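Table S2 (continued). Query chain:
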Amino acid sequence: MEMRILIGDDAPFIREVIRNILMDQSVQFLPDACDGEEVVTLAKRHKPDLIFLDLSMPKKNGITACEEILQVLPDTKIVIVSSLHDESLVQKAIEIGCVDYIKKPFEVTDILSVLKHIHKAAEVVNG
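Corresponding output:
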């Protein structure tokens, strides 16, 4: 089953890198978002299985976007991908329901490892 993925980051280069890393995986790409408001709007419209999300974005930060998304789509998996290395922000993201945190700059294996982990967890839940 293809995993539906939304990428939210204000840097087009990062969105492109994540997309390229996942290109050969069993995924369906939804439209990308370049700010926090757009992430929330697109998530509500397209109901992604997985969101890769930056914490520091215009219009709405990643923490606020996560909270809003998880209120209406509690089964959506959100992975923070950020250059912000503030431990309290990481902890807050995990507390509100994000499944993982990847620090920028990241390696290809960081993204693929998270995807593999989420696929395995979904297989356990779905039998």
